[in-house]
Amino acid sequence: MKKKLLIFAGVILVLFAGLYFIVQYKNNQAVEKNENPYGDKKLKQATIDQLDDPNYQNQMMPDELKEKVESGKPLTVYFYSPTCPHCQSTTPYLVPLAKENNIDLKKMNLLEFKDQWDVYGIESVPTLVYFDNGKEVSRIEGDQGKENFQTFFDKYVNK
C-alpha cells in the first residue's frame, strides 16, 4: 500500500513539473513572439497575456515617463493594472476614443512598476492624467464612462 502511494505521489509530482515547464515555455514564446516594451524585466502573467493586445501598446517605462513629463511637452498617460477589473472594462473604449481624438495615449502598467503609484500619487486605477509644462494639469480616476473621458479630452487635451 505504501509503495502504491509513493508511486502515485511520484506520478502527480512529474505531471505538475511537466505542466510548470509547459506554461513557462508558452510564456517565453509569447514574450519573444510579441514586441516586448519591458525589455528583460520578468513579467507577471497578466502582463504577458496583454502583450499582443492592441489596446495595451504604447507602453512607457518609468524613466521615459519621467523624462517626457520633465520635458514640459503635453502628455496624456493612462495608469492601469492588467489585473484591475475596472481597467479591463475601461480600456476597450478609452483607447479607441483617444485614437479618434488623435491623442498619443501613453500607458503605464502599475502591476509591473508598483513604485509609480507613489511617484504620481495614483490612488486607484484606472487613472488618466494630463501633463503640460512639466506639471500635472488634471486627472480623471475610475471608469467614468466614454462621455466623461471625451469631456476630459476636450477640456484639457484637445484645447
Supply Rg. 20 Å
How far apart the termini lie comes to 78 Å
The overall pLDDT, averaged over residues, is 88
Structure summary, number of beta strands: 4
What proportion of the residues form beta strands (DSSP E)? Answer: 15-25%
Strand order of the largest sheet: 2-1-3-4
> Could you say which structural class the secondary elements and strand pairing correspond to?
alpha+beta
Low-confidence residue ranges:
none
**So what's the overall shape?**
elongated
Order of helices and strands: HHHEHEHEEH
Protein architecture, described:
With 159 residues, the chain is α+β, with helices and mostly antiparallel strands. Helices cover 50% and strands 15% of the residues. It has six helices and four strands. Helix 4 packs across helix 6 (146-157). The chain is elongated and about 75 Å long. The termini are far apart.
